[in-house]
Amino acid sequence: MDPGDIPEIMDLEKNTLAAWSRKHLEDELQQPKGFQFVARNASSQKIQAVICGRAMADEAEILKLSVAENARQRGVGYHLLDFVVSYCNNKGVENCYLELRASNGAARKLYEKRGFIAVGTRKTYYEEPAEDAILMRLKL
Ligand SMILES: CC(C)(COP(=O)(O)OP(=O)(O)OC[C@H]1O[C@@H](n2cnc3c(N)ncnc32)[C@H](O)[C@@H]1OP(=O)(O)O)[C@@H](O)C(=O)NCCC(=O)NCCS
Known about the structure:
Layout: H1 6-12, H2 22-29, E1 34-40, E2 47-56, E3 59-67, H3 76-90, E4 95-101, H4 105-113, E5 117-126, E6 131-139
Parallel strand pairs: 3-4
Antiparallel strand pairs: 1-2, 2-3, 4-6, 5-6
Bound molecules: coenzyme A.
Coenzyme A is lined by residues 16, 18, 65-67, 72-78, 100, 104-107, 109-110, 113.
């Protein structure tokens, strides 16, 4: 992900509950331990998905995974997640964590397919609308 990708990412995320502002995306690019990747359509070069997180020593956290509405349910999310798991593995990460809304069944199934398991709940973690978070972990 480059700074020039930010307008396209904001457009991709405009109908999702977890959309980040321009400032948030810009700040994420400055994180020393951060990673940010986009997946592009091979012919149009349009961004189809974005993933962001942090890898610190033996732990990583995935902070964002969004797939464009018109590219969903074709394996894009799974393959981008799988790429990041390999990236973390190469960096010596032993445990990878993420949080998701309790009602986000599609995301939960995606993460479970890649081997993540639910390890806890954070009560009323999310706002607008208020909702519990499920904490998931993948041991690498
Ligand atoms: C959740 C999301 C990232 C899934 O991305 P995707 O590219 O559509 O997912 P994939 O096509 O790679 O699907 C992988 C697996 O996820 C599950 N899955 C994906 N979409 C699903 C849906 N709508 N309903 C049920 N399961 C679904 C399935 O288990 C699927 O495996 P299968 O195809 O063998 O059944 C995408 O829907 C999205 O961007 N949603 C909005 C943002 C979001 O919620 N992000 C996650 C925040 S934690």
